[in-house]
Design a protein that fits this description.
The complex is a heterodimer of chains A (about 210) and B (about 220). With about 210 residues, chain A is of the alpha+beta class. Chain A is built from six helices and ten strands. Chain A has helices at about 5-10, 10-25, 70-80, 150-180, 180-195, 200-210, and strands spanning about 30-35, 40-50, 60-65, 80-90, 95, 100, 105, 115-120, 120-130, 135-140. The longest helix of chain A has about 30 residues, at about 150-180. With about 220 residues, chain B is of the alpha+beta class. Chain B folds into two domains: about 10-85 and about 130-190, no CATH class; about 85-130, no CATH class. Classes of the chains: A alpha+beta (about 210), B alpha+beta (about 220).
């Protein structure tokens, strides 16, 4: 099988990734440990599109405040629809933040020798497309730099940071997805969640992922 | 909208292949060779595509300090296209056709004469209008091999694939669940398993769930 075939054959995993993120966010009430980034808030924000593949594509486009928590969204899952795109919000805990300048030096708004401390949590928002895992309408935390080139480095720094969070989430999902636990515990728990029935506990999930 | 300001919508790619040892000079040669060339009204071509400065789309004299930003290689992918409104073209063509027919005292033009007149009208109108210009930012992180391209339009992405390979001698693979899994630190055995997976049904009870229920 060549690379192109492997890519096409595994596209459905993007939709499963979105279902897993949605379920996990619900299970942990939006707060989850992300490897390398500490406890982050991850939730489906103000839009989600679900589709059922078939002769005629049936689509549910839900917008507004927390559409993923609406009865319509869960009903769409029960009808066999899966998310094809969703607006996700991720809030990272407050941390030191530095940017690089064109000559590679560390740029700081503060004049001290320490990295620029960012006291507030940092919120990212973006639409994640399941089939390509492409991001659109990405919103990053407010920029600190004034100069245009410095702002570029800061934007790239924030995108790399977002990319790192997404990779950590994706890695957790794929490790689970290829493990035996997916079929025996995770998928049944997600199906129970879809039916609004009691499912997995947080402790059990953490035990499964070795947390 | 792009790398420096505005809302961020982009496609992400991984670069396949290693950077050559003397990549700076080799890449610059390729970039200068494939730099954007403005459209000329007299030429037949409808569209021109090439690289420009990411900060100034009219700056086509590309040098290392304009494209290398620390560990990023930044470029604009500029494409210009003549867009003559059909109604405008038709009006001008009809008028010129009438003049020619009157001067030749005939009631119709031959196929060849029509083609020549069409070319002449097109050339005249091109001198009176500006081509439609589109510029899309591209940022290549040379350390990680990740390219961000500020468009998700299929046509532009295809153009990027072609031009990128031609300029840099390296190919791009667009992000997908499989590509991201491979670059997220998953071991090779797990990657191999990914291609054997079947979609999970989330909406219906499956036999395993029933069995679990009964055991409980």
């Amino acid at each position: 099988m060549d690379l192109h075939e492997m890519i096409e054959q595994t596209r459905f995993l993007g939709r499963e990734l979105l279902v897993w993120m949605w379920w996990k966010s619900d299970l942990f009430e939006g707060r989850m440990d992300v490897t390398g980034h500490g406890e982050c808030e991850v939730w489906i924000d103000d839009q989600i599109t679900l589709e059922a593949a078939g002769a005629k594509v049936e689509r549910s486009q839900l917008r507004g405040t927390s559409p993923a928590a609406s009865p319509e969204a869960r009903e769409a899952l029960r009808q066999g629809k899966v998310p094809t795109k969703a607006r996700i919000s991720i809030t990272l805990p407050a941390a030191a933040r530095t940017t690089k300048t064109k000559d590679g030096a560390t740029g700081k708004k503060a004049t001290s020798g320490e990295p620029n401390p960012v006291p507030e949590d940092r919120e990212f928002g973006f639409v994640l497309h399941a089939e390509t895992l492409a991001l659109s309408s990405v919103k990053t935390p407010a920029l600190l730099q004034d100069e245009i080139e410095e702002r570029f480095y800061e934007r790239m720094y924030l995108l790399e940071e977002l990319d790192s969070v997404l990779r950590a989430l994706v890695a957790e999902f794929f490790r689970l997805r290829v493990s035996r636990n997916w079929d025996t515990e995770i998928a049944p728990a997600i199906r129970a969640w879809v039916r609004d029935e009691p499912g997995m506990t947080r402790q059990r999930y953490l035990a499964l992922v070795g947390g | 909208m792009g790398a420096f300001s505005g809302s961020m919508t982009f496609s992400t790619f991984l670069v396949r292949g290693e950077l050559p040892r003397d990549f700076r000079m080799r890449f610059l040669e390729g970039i200068r060779r494939d730099a954007f060339r403005p459209l000329v009204p007299e030429e037949e071509t409808d569209e021109s595509v090439g690289w420009c400065s990411i900060q100034h789309p009219f700056d086509l004299d590309l040098t290392l300090d304009k494209v290398l930003f620390n560990s990023y290689l930044n470029l604009g992918l500029r494409s210009d296209r003549w867009r003559i409104p059909a109604s405008l073209f038709k009006a001008h063509f009809t008028e010129r056709e009438r003049d020619v027919l009157a001067s030749k005292d005939r009631d119709r033009l031959t196929k060849r004469e029509k083609a020549e007149l069409k070319a002449a009208v097109t050339s005249t109108l091109r001198r009176q209008i500006l081509p439609a210009m589109k510029v899309v930012d591209l940022c290549w992180n040379l350390d990680t091999g990740v390219v961000r391209f500020w468009s998700q339009a299929k046509g532009l992405v295809e153009t990027l694939h072609e031009l990128f390979t031609e300029t840099f001698g390296l190919s791009l693979v667009q992000h997908s669940p499989f590509v991201l899994a491979r670059s997220s630190g998953i071991d090779d055995d797990s990657i191999a398993l990914l291609t054997t997976l079947e979609p999970t049904p989330f909406h219906a009870l499956v036999l395993e769930d029933r069995a679990d229920d009964q055991e409980e």
